[in-house]
Amino acid sequence: MTNQETEQQGWWRRLSSGLKRTSASIGDAIADLVSKRKLDQAMLDEIEEVLIRADLGVDSAAKIAAAVGEGRYDQEITPDEVKAVVAAEVEKVLAPVAKPLAIGRSKPFVMLVVGVNGSGKTTTIGKLAAKLRAEGRSVLLAAGDTFRAAAIDQLKIWAGRSGAAVIARAPGADPAGLAFDALTEARGEEIDVLLVDTAGRLQNKAMLMEELEKIVRVMKKVDAGAPHAVLLVLDATVGQNALSQVEVFRAIAGVTGLAMTKLDGTARGGILVAIAAKYGLPVHFIGVGEGIDDLAAFEARDFARAIAGID
Known about the structure:
Number of strands: 8
Helix content: 40-55%
CATH class of the largest domain: Alpha Beta
Order of helices and strands: HHHHHEHEHEHEHEHEHEEH
CATH architecture of the largest domain: 3-Layer(aba) Sandwich
CATH topology of the largest domain: Rossmann fold
Number of helices: 12
Radius of gyration: 21 Å
Number of domains: 2
């Protein structure tokens, strides 16, 4: 077995165990349902209920249940057959949104990273910086969440770990001013990628919107095309709450892609299916742990099989 295959197996194991909460809630309930009787409409309604409870969303749950029922009425069906249909249908929803992050030709390529506080935003920036550095790119991190001293310190630590440069100011500094300085510096130094952290205080949406709009406005003075990407970081453990976060940040910040973090055992990963079905936003990354290598490109098939509990 090659190193790459070993790494892929290790990643698959971590993803599967991270989605255990979702796959167990689906798998156990399905096994319970199908072992008792032949497939009828009542069973399909119950399967739909199970999928809704697992956060897959009402529309996706209805489609999957209908697919399970196709050509199988009054027949016996095994849990594995149902899981196979669930995996196939979930993959259909996720395949169109599974898109790698494309770093454009602009130099620097500017990515604004948004999300609520506690979503894993700063950690994701650090892991992404490490990925980009491993590809041989120069990276500058801008500590734009200036209201939280901890976020500034955390970003400096990640910069040290990943070998990226960092620009930070004292807590309370103007985030837009920092973003302007960061982009000016990145251009002067011919940096490949600039990753800008931002505050995530959703309690005051108007203030947050104003702040993000100002950051974008001042960056456009330096580069009319900036930001070239807006990455929304979502915490997989919040379930349905993630849908409203997508709604808000899409309106405020013009989100171009998603990263989902904390797929580590307590996760309610089914919500990604509901988000994909409703918004169709590209999903670039998923994170399954705290380590520097624990951020990977999103693969629809792997995720669908892990959710359905297929080994």
